[in-house]
Amino acid sequence: MFTYSIRKSLGFLLLLSSPFFYSQENLSADELFAKARTTAFEQKDYNASIILAKQALEKAPDYTDISIFLGRVYTWNKDLASARAVFEDLGKKDIKDEDYFIAYASLEYWNDQYDKAIEILDKGLTYHPQSEALLLLKAKVYYSNNDYPEAEKAINSLLSINPKNTEARALAIKINEITSKNALGVIYNYSHFDKQFDQDWHIVGISYKRITSIGSFILRGNYANKFGENGTQIELEAYPKLSKTFYLYVGGGYSNDVGIFPKYRTGVSLNANLPHSFEAEIGYRQLYFNNSIWMYTASVGKYYKNFWFNIRTYITPDRENISHSYTGTVRYYTKGAQDYFALQAGTGISPEEYRNNLLENETFKLKTFKIGGEYNFSINKTNLFSLSTMYYNQEFRPNEKGNQFDITLGYTKKF
Questions:
Q1: Nearest Cα to 139, choosing from 117, 162, 116?
Q2: CATH number for the domain including 209?
Q3: Which of the four, 94, 97, 288, 334, has the lowest number of CB atoms within 10 Å?
């Protein structure tokens, strides 16, 4: 009785499903392919999509696009053996389609088979030497495998073909930060005030940067002449990597010349490299003169073609009110990751500025406006030069404003 019931149920299901299979049989390979794509992309039903793709291939066994798609869906469905079988079979047919090399190399890249991915990409580039997609994937593979010089070569080749490739530009910036193990830098800042102070300010900083397997570290010494007095400061900053997406900023500084510099400064931020060439940061900065000033910061950045857009805020709460600082920055990259023009505008004082000692007297709670520009360029990739100017209009006493003009020169040697 039980067996009969099962047979009856199965027969009923077959009866219901027979129109479905009949309708599938009447579809062309293109129609089945379109249905498979919709099933995979919109419904995320990879098993059903695989069945439809196989049915399409029965009607058109040499339809390369369907085979490549089938390999992709197997990859998304975590059936790596079947995906590789599809791609290897296509390889035996000497397929030269760009999408084939991208799909096959992506499979190996996502599964940390970096050497195999590079082998596939190099073969693809022999047929498509100008392929931006292949070069970008090649740079990503080398970057993930910590082979930064090769990643830089691939990304520079891509940017020479299309300097406006947004994703390539974002990756080039990250690669540039870690291509050289060492960097020595010197920076000079000059500030002139028309009302607020009688004497100009001079600041010189010397830094050493070291790239390690866990991130970069920067040791910096600063000398300043402000208010006719001299002072020194030492700083240490680190950018430890947490994952492919996240890394930290951790910084601290000390000076025995309070007023010219804060006695202590600390800061921690969590940074994220987000999809679609976005990046974000959230954290805090603390300055201690005679009392601690706590500032909370957040920023969002976006690469678009040759441009980088960023907006940052600092929020400083106290017992009576909350002070705000906002800065917007736009960069235009002319060549590689180290050559750009920048414009900046904003309000308030940030703890990263050379004038952060003004925070001690709470002048940052008064109205401040700033605007400036910067030009960075490189010679032979290892010699980096920078020139920037900044204009400040600050209410240094209630209803009394003054102007400040800054010029900053910098040089860095990478090796």
A1: 117
A2: 2.40.160.40
A3: 94
Q: For residue 247, what are its two tokens?
A: 């890394």
pLDDT at 354: 85
Last residue of a domain, one of 176, 191, 206: 176
Cα–Cα distance between 333 and 70 in angstroms, integer? 39
C-beta of residue 285 within 8 angstroms of C-beta of residue 269: no
Alpha-carbon distance of 365 to 144, in angstroms, equals 45
Rounded to whole angstroms, the Cα distance separating 31 from 36 reads: 9
Q: Does residue 16 carry a pLDDT above 50?
A: no
- Does residue 5 lie in a domain region? no
Mark whether 138 and 277 lie in a shared domain: no
Instruction: Determine the residue type at 352.
Output: E
Tell me the residue range of the domain where 292 lies: 182-414
Confidence check: pLDDT of 403 > 70: yes
Based on the domain organization, do 243 and 379 belong to the same domain? yes
**Is residue 150, in this structure, part of any structural domain at all?**
yes
The answer to whether residues 59 and 29 touch, using CB atoms and an 8 Å cutoff, is: yes
Last residue of a domain, one of 176, 198, 217: 176
Could you give the number of structural domains in the chain? 2
Task: For 258-295, write each residue's pLDDT tens digit.
Answer: 999 999 999 999 999 999 999 999 999 999 999 999 99
Q: Do 222 and 279 share a domain, yes or no?
A: yes
The answer on pLDDT for 12 being more than 60 is: no
Give the closest residue to 292 by CA, choosing from 316, 315, 314: 316
| pLDDT attached to residue 146 | 87
The answer on 289 and 369 residing in a single domain is: yes
Residues 165 and 194 reside in one and the same domain = no
DSSP string, 121-189: HHHHHHH-TT-HHHHHHHHHHHHHTT-HHHHHHHHHHHHHH-TT-HHHHHHHHHHHTTSSSEEEEEEEE
Tell me the per-residue pLDDT of 54-75, one tens digit each, with 9 for 90 and over.
999 999 999 999 999 999 999 9
Residue 353 belongs to some domain of the structure? yes
Q: Are residues 61 and 193 in the same domain?
A: no
Tell me the whole-structure pTM to 2 decimals.
0.81
- Contact present, 346 and 260 (Cβ < 8 Å): no
Token pair for 383 = 């010699």
**Is there a domain that residue 6 lies in?**
no
Q: Is residue 23 very low, low, confident or very high in pLDDT (cuts 50, 70, 90)?
A: low
